[in-house]
């Protein structure tokens, strides 16, 4: 799956969880951890490492949480 598609999907997840207020980033991280294939997770984290172009701030926060907690 292309990075552009993963960014779009991650941002959609982030937009949904943003409505939950301060816990939105955790909700997005938990969703990605639970429902994304490990290869998809690795690709979006690689994209983040390369600058994370296109990712919203909430998604960047969520991916940082995803990385720090197995």
From TrEMBL:
Domain of life, per UniProt, equals: Bacteria
The record ties this protein, via InterPro entries, to: Formate_DH_dsu
Q: Name one Pfam family in it.
A: FdsD
Protein name from the UniProt record: Formate dehydrogenase
